[in-house]
């Protein structure tokens, strides 16, 4: 019985020919590495969205190696019973995943076996959640003391053109509120001059907060940012004054509320996990403030504001600090004392922000900490 050949449009065949002629034998690398890398590079809020090298690494580990290893194992199984069709081609090879065992090389099989072991290890450990369970953190003595004293938390966040990250942000914020207790949280949200659907998403989230019976406020303003919208500042002091004005607006409900808040959390459009905030609340105990580590790709963001306990500047690359003891703390993902910090999320003692009549009994010890378990 003769089979009718499948007709491929000439345009597709022509472009496929161009593609093969340009890339030659490397076309599979373009498909299995470059295309996934582009996805990682431009997908938001995947943490590789501004790191090309990290995107290439993940594409290699999670796409190229698994697929090529599977093809190698298939070739190993099939090579013993392989035969050729009337064109002289193997029945078990394809244009993209050609059987990699055509040539007998002593290193080829061990190399692919090691590759398979590496892929299994990566999927077993590399895709595991790096975040601790919230139940582990709330059993910390600091949180147990907070629960005993019925502590309350004021969370303030500002947004501008953050539509891509808001679905993730609101989901994690909801998880955080559920852990802290809806009755113990006041969430202050501000948005200004967004050119996307940030305001509408925040309005939708505010309705959800109402259903959750969470105290909250949402302030949406226009014509505050200036022009051009992507860089409206005249200089660095102007930018700092603008950012301070936004945060002061987000803090305004703090002074209109009679609740003696224990902890104040300031944040913005960072991609975070709700346990990140829980760890900062623990780290801020007995200190003025605790900061997270905010990464911009593979480097430290807001590097200019971070200083070690001796006032020395940091580098942008891990483990950041000059002192060997500080670097050791960073390597094990611990918490260390710093001179100044303001990186992504900060948890502060609320006392300095409140009226003296609302202050809790006790002293304000001062000092800052940096949580490096990012």
TrEMBL record:
Coiled coil segments of this chain: none
Pfam families per the UniProt record, alphabetical: CAP59_mtransfer (PF11735)
> What does the UniProt keyword field contain?
Membrane, Transmembrane, Transmembrane helix
The record lists the membrane-crossing segments as 21-42, 54-79, 109-126
Q: Which InterPro entries match?
A: Mannosyltransferase_CMT1
Q: Does the keyword Membrane apply?
A: yes
Please give the superkingdom of this protein's source: Eukaryota
What PANTHER family does this protein map onto?
A: CHROMOSOME 8, WHOLE GENOME SHOTGUN SEQUENCE, EXPORT PROTEIN (CAP59), PUTATIVE (AFU_ORTHOLOGUE AFUA_7G05020)-RELATED
Name the chain's protein.
Glycosyltransferase family 69 protein
Native organism is Orbilia oligospora (Nematode-trapping fungus)
